[in-house]
Amino acid sequence: MTNDPKIPDVQMHLATPAEPVTGTIVLSELCTKGKSSSFVRHVSIDLSGTPLEGNFWAGQSFGIIPPGEDEKGRPHKVRLYSVASPRWGEDGQGKVISTTPKRLIDEYSPADEEEDDRHELFLGVCSNYLCDLKPGDKVKVTGPSGKRFLLPTDHEAHDYLFLATGTGIAPFRGMCMELFEGKNGPCKSQVHLVMGAPYSTDLLYDDLFERLEKDHPNFHYHRVISRETGPVNAKGRYVHHYLDNQIQQHRDFLANPRTLMYICGLAGMQVGIFQMLGANQLGENYFTVHEELEGIDPKDWTDQQIKRRVRPTRRCMLEVY
Ligand SMILES: Cc1cc2nc3c(=O)[nH]c(=O)nc-3n(C[C@H](O)[C@H](O)[C@H](O)COP(=O)(O)OP(=O)(O)OC[C@H]3O[C@@H](n4cnc5c(N)ncnc54)[C@H](O)[C@@H]3O)c2cc1C
């Protein structure tokens, strides 16, 4: 039995990069847990009166067009950000959506060997633009984008494993609110959310998930901290290590045909997860493997092999960037 999910038909591309709508910032606040070396904000945008109003689903994303031009003199391109709000938006009516931008701040690291000594400050264009905006500021928005990384139409028909790293938590904020705070009452399915972050101060929306866990015995919140030692990190370093360590406890859940897996976050995070599932004979629910990989121990699958030769099934939703 495969028990594939029925995914809702959603609207896409109502506002294109050539014809974006103008939204208004209504809120911008830090959403890390404490004093963190990264800056991640919760930003809400009012889309009232535009074709985008009421048309976003948790799991979709929208585009932001930063003003100005790139170094070649072309207008900046659109960047995508995940919707962090539930279907009913931040305002209860789907007019205000939110997202979770992380400032891209680094030292310049040249791809070109000839620029070897370049190391000045590198600031991502759109993430810093979006994080700098204040309530009342206008912003150009496109979308919606994405039609697969969505909750199924019948919430009760499935159980859920949500795996997030960093801002990959954004869609799960909206999805968990839909599952537990919708007008039809809380969903009775089993929901596990695993959040990976380097330090506990980098946890995002931690208070919300802590509250949901307290209020709903079927919601399980797992924090996986990679660079700290101590009790919080006793069970594993990265998300896939954590799952591997917990596999006996959760084997029935992972093998159950009701379970859907959603993976969102850093590009490549699926590699360790697929290797771990394959090595534990739990992969077939979530991905198909090209014959080229037959006979190779899943732990030896390379990044490239996984990206090209391992395909998620309809029970595995993958959004990495
Ligand atoms: C579906 C989807 C959903 C997303 N959701 C979110 C979200 O919810 N939150 C979020 O924060 N982001 C999200 N992103 C990522 C987002 O779209 C942007 O890519 C991110 O904000 C960086 O954009 P930027 O304009 O700030 O950086 P840019 O100015 O575009 O810079 C990034 C580029 O510069 C290069 N670069 C990076 N670091 C350096 C360096 N040190 N030296 C030299 N070059 C470098 C990179 O190769 C990259 O191509 C999502 C992406 C996708 C595809």
Written description of the protein model:
- With 321 residues, the chain is of the alpha/beta class.
- It has two domains: 21-145, Elongation Factor Tu (Ef-tu), domain 3, CATH 2.40.30; 155-320, 3-Layer(aba) Sandwich (Rossmann fold).
- Helix content is 20%, strand content 26%.
- It is built from seven helices and 15 strands.
- Strands 4-3-8-1-2-5 form a six-stranded antiparallel beta sheet, with helices on one face.
- Strand 9, helix 2 (170-181) and strand 10 (191-197) form a beta-alpha-beta unit.
- Helix 4 (239-245) runs parallel beside helix 6.
- It is globular and about 50 Å long.
- The model has no long low-confidence stretch (mean pLDDT 94).
- Residues 61, 79-82, 99-102, 104, 106-109, 122, 124-128, 167, 170, 319, 321 line the site of flavin-adenine dinucleotide.
Question: Can you lay out the helices and strands and say which pair or pack?
Answer:
Blueprint: E1 21-30, E2 41-46, E3 61-65, E4 79-82, E5 96-99, E6 105-107, E7 121-123, H1 125-132, E8 138-145, E9 159-165, H2 170-181, E10 191-197, H3 206-215, E11 219-225, H4 239-245, H5 247-255, E12 259-265, H6 269-279, E13 287-289, H7 303-309, E14 310-312, E15 316-320
Bound molecules: flavin-adenine dinucleotide.
Flavin-adenine dinucleotide binds next to β4, β6 and α1.
